[in-house]
Design a protein that fits this description.
The protein is α+β, with helices and mostly antiparallel strands and 473 residues long. It has 11 helices and 15 strands.
């Protein structure tokens, strides 16, 4: 029931945004979280109004019952009086004259009609009493959601915050799901031997400089210079020169202030505005390695419902690592940022308390190894992955993907031979259809590799130019 209501709420917010154009409130962009809470308040208002209508209906029926009872009392008095009058008229000894006989017949008729009216009114009163009893025994709900229903609804909201790596209060109402139509089909799988085997395989044969942090990127018409610093020593700066540079810094690093990497000249205003508008979220994990499996191995995941709305994203979902005694707990939404300021021991303790609440105190052993992530605090990422923030749209992904030229140009303008792009951008935050995914990051890298190759080597698929024939005199 709650899952169905969760889907109905999302449908309602979509209707508000796309059909009623409710995307701004007091000149500020509306977030998905705002819209959801607004719809919930409207639903709560509707429930209260329905409750008031229900009470008013009972009161109206009780007033009708009161009126019927008063009429019955009046009819009863009339019947007693008619009975007396009929008895008196009927006591006249026969033979009676015409007038006396008429009086007897009239009183008999009036008495019979009064008795009939009394019985009909009595039946109506009984029917009304039954309806009032039915209404009183079947009142509408006092609340739109019970406290337990709200906790389960908050679990679904936490799952949505996990998918977008941000509280719903920061998501764009209109554009938060702009990439849904491009989602890859198929099952979710765990990469054997860990995700690291993917970049390790891709980096084979490449000269990767470890402990080398980029501090500055200079670009001009003649090429680029990348100034780096050795993170292990104080004086190990080195400058790399090239024709172009491909920037794959996470959006969180690009958003950092003061900047971790400076661009000389500074990036154009349209690029910086897109960087600031687009959101970069936070999602953390708690990895617990045990000596044995104590959970159902046939279940890939199981959830934990938080006690409050504020803590709904705290350890709300556990992943079962295939055939290994390892559980991964997710921390999403507001809790992802709050728990970055909590020690590992406290976080692991909370996680074990949740597991003991599910499986029992004696069933959960102490983990032999734990890992707690803090992606927002990580200087090399400053978060997990991008999301469409309130005030942003899918267009900002396209703007982040546009390369930068030494001399300012309007985005989308034709390249000029004397002002070729020198700074290119790739990463999950630069691909509109597949953001916040590994395959999106990979595809963006292939896109930029093709773009750079086309610029410096020429596109292999270009139609060869034909030399116009020379006119002879």
């Amino acid at each position: 029931m709650v899952e169905r209501e969760f889907n109905r709420l999302l449908e309602a917010t979509s209707f508000l945004s796309h059909q009623m154009d409710f995307n701004y409130m007091q000149t500020k962009p509306v977030s998905l979280g705002q819209a959801l809470e607004l719809v919930i308040k409207l639903q709560e208002k509707q429930v209260k109004e329905q409750k008031c209508r229900h009470v008013r209906k009972i009161i109206e029926m009780q007033e009708d019952m009161k009126s019927f009872q008063n009429k019955l009392i009046g009819l009863k008095d009339s019947i007693l009086m008619l009975q007396k009058q009929y008895k008196e008229a009927n006591e006249v000894k026969t033979p009676r004259d015409v007038t006396s006989e008429f009086v007897v017949k009239a009183k008999q008729r009036d008495l019979q009609q009064a008795v009939k009216d009394y019985e009909e009114l009595k039946d109506k009163l009984k029917d009304l009493e039954g309806k009032v009893t039915e209404l009183e025994n079947n009142p509408p709900s006092d609340v739109y959601l019970s406290s337990r229903d709200r906790q389960i609804l908050d679990w679904h909201f936490a799952n949505l915050e996990f998918a977008n790596a941000t509280p719903l209060s920061t998501l764009s109402l209109k554009h938060w799901d702009q990439d849904d139509d491009f989602e890859f089909s198929g099952h979710h799988l765990t990469v054997r031997n860990g995700y690291s085997c993917v970049p390790v395989a891709l980096s084979e044969g490449l000269d990767i400089k470890l402990y080398t942090a980029v501090r500055q990127i200079r670009y001009s018409h003649s090429g680029v210079e990348v100034v780096t610093a050795n993170t292990k020593s104080q004086g190990g700066n080195y400058t790399y020169k090239a024709d172009a540079v491909l920037v794959t810094l996470p959006l969180g690093v690009l958003k950092q202030s003061p900047p971790a990497v400076t661009f000389v000249p500074p990036l154009p205003d349209w690029k910086m505005a897109a960087i600031q508008r687009l959101g970069f979220g936070n999602l953390n994990k708690v990895v617990l390695c045990f000596d044995r499996i104590f959970w159902d191995q046939t279940v890939n995941l199981f959830g934990h419902v938080g006690s409050t709305t504020a803590s709904r994203g705290e350890l709300f979902l556990f992943w079962n690592l295939y055939r290994a005694p390892v559980l991964i707990a997710l921390v999403a939404g507001e809790a992802a940022q709050i728990m970055e300021n909590v020690s590992d021991d406290v976080i692991v303790g909370r996680t074990l308390a949740v597991l003991k609440g599910i499986f029992g105190n004696n069933a959960v052993p102490q983990p032999k190894e734990t890992v707690v992530t803090r992606w927002r605090a990580d200087p090399w990422s400053r978060g997990s992955y991008s999301y469409v923030a309130a005030g942003s749209s899918g267009n900002d992904y396209d703007l982040l993907a546009i390369p930068v030229t030494p001399a300012p140009v309007v985005p989308g303008a034709m390249p000029q031979p004397n002002n070729l792009p020198r700074v290119f951008f790739a990463g999950e935050h630069t691909i509109r259809n597949y953001p916040a995914t590994v395959h999106g990051a990979l595809l963006s890298g292939l896109r930029e590799a093709g773009r750079i190759a086309d610029q410096f080597l020429g596109p292999p698929y270009a139609v060869p130019r034909q030399t116009p024939p020379v006119a002879h005199q």
